[in-house]
Amino acid sequence: MPTPTPAHQAAQDGAPAAAAAGPSLGLSWSLVALLREWSTRVDAATEELPQGMRGYQVLRVVVHDSPPTQAALAARLGIDRTVMTYLIDSYVECGLVERQQDPADRRARRIVATAHGRKVLAGVDVRVAAAEEDLLSGLPPEDRVLFRELLERAARGVTQDDDPCGVVARATTPPDGR
Amino acid sequence: MPTPTPAHQAAQDGAPAAAAAGPSLGLSWSLVALLREWSTRVDAATEELPQGMRGYQVLRVVVHDSPPTQAALAARLGIDRTVMTYLIDSYVECGLVERQQDPADRRARRIVATAHGRKVLAGVDVRVAAAEEDLLSGLPPEDRVLFRELLERAARGVTQDDDPCGVVARATTPPDGR
DNA sequence: TGATATCGTCTGTAGCACAGATGATTTCGT
DNA sequence: ACGAAATCATCTGTGCTACAGACGATATCA
């Protein structure tokens, strides 16, 4: 419905500078705005889960990838280990996942989803998908698919995908201090 | 960066992408991952500014749009008013912006960038642009442009497009349930 | 066996957002 | 013109969250 025209129009009182600079609002603003909206919608869709979208991501990874350790799980999502501890605590409390002793390494706890956890995840997945589709309502359907693919590939490019250490390194590297 | 895979054609019929490379990362993961990377890179590019990317966004809006009040500025970026106060404090302290009494409404402070502020912003803009381009290095150049456009249009769609009041309304509206 | 590294947890600290109250000023109603 | 209500920016206090560091438990290596 919105016109496919290059979306930047001068604001109210004489601000053509933005248009002159090229992209009207910039990648920064778009990313932030979109993520903010996404956050509120997904939070609403996952309100039955602890920790909102954060926990949703964790549960999702646990079910689909089941990393061997909590640390690996945390690194996968760019979360601190200590955070992962109480994040999983709340999930155990709700009976969505379990901590199992890894017989091969008794230091490690293997995080596995319960049947209930998987069932809940399936339900939330549906609602999240709906929320995401709603989020992209500004785009025509075929552009949504395209956008998803581009986004995923861009994300894959920066996380180096097959090198999990890359994620860890970048996540734990201090911002060069000053 | 390896192969600039075809984006436009693959997307058009169905969604084979998910099956192709690791399933279910989904829009959620992509968005989060991309934003995390973006955040670290932009933070690095804006380390000379207070408040990191947050302040960068503010300075940017101040220079280009110069909203009449702090509240309007805050609403524009989805930031709380009280946060905006000390955020601007730090910018005033660095001599990047000034608070000027609005003669028409003496309650309001008009936030204007100093010459120094504009100069610094210009420098940072260049570095941020480079960081953003680097962020999209996983996409072939023509797809980057496309991605930017789609992203911006999607973001515009959720922010009520040309109705700035919509942003305010949504920002202050409670999650409205479900 | 002892030294060192890893895993998960716990503790303390710092930063940040948000609600509410406050003082200053404008606008509206009568 | 006068007072009530709204608005702007600020300040204060509270709660949540992340992160650094220390700690036991276990594994690995010399």
UniProtKB/TrEMBL annotation, chains A, B:
InterPro entries named among the record's database cross-references: HTH_MarR-typ, MarR/SlyA-like, WH-like_DNA-bd_sf, WH_DNA-bd_sf
Keyword DNA-binding: yes
PROSITE patterns attached to this UniProt entry: HTH_MARR_2 (PS50995)
Residue ranges occupied by any HTH marR-type domain in the UniProt entry: 24-156
Keywords noted in UniProt: DNA-binding, Transcription, Transcription regulation
Protein name listed in UniProt: Winged helix-turn-helix transcriptional regulator
Organism of this sequence: Myceligenerans indicum
